[in-house]
What we know:
- The protein is of the alpha+beta class.
- Helices cover 33% and strands 23% of the residues.
- Helix 1 (20-29) packs across helix 2.
- The radius of gyration is 17 Å and the shape is globular.
Amino acid sequence: MANIDKKFIVNLQGKEFVTYEGLLDVAHQMKLKSIETELIQIPNSENGNTCIAKAVAKTEDGKEFHGYGDADPSNVNKLIARHLIRMAETRAKARALRDLTNIGMTALEELAEGDVAIENPSNQKNQENGNLELTCTECGIEVKQGVAAYSKRNFGRELCMDCQKQFKQAN
Length: 171
């Protein structure tokens, strides 16, 4: 039986969520062979800019696990709104991988903006221990409170200034 590393579990407002990276890690332990995706609905003005994708995860022993994901401007943050196809595809793959791995908790990537306040798990631990040090979720360096607040508001997580620049360039 495959095990999920605790580093892939995020606790938000008292509820645990698994990251896509964690699902993929466990799926590889369970002999994931491939993941195929299909665009079911292209976002446009007639469908409220809703994108729907389907994913099929296949294991080496021939088992198939299907999942669907959607994304529209109302359920993604403003930085992701330009990338609805990718988000719908990621959500579809996460659902298929949750079935393959038998992980019942919701994937972090499935959440709509505003479902929960997304926090950096290491920052959550620091605050529980009375330590006000904030760290970048990508590279782990210390982040000043103002930078962290700006980043959380605009990127949905605490990023240092360098990682914010990289994120902007990539998107």
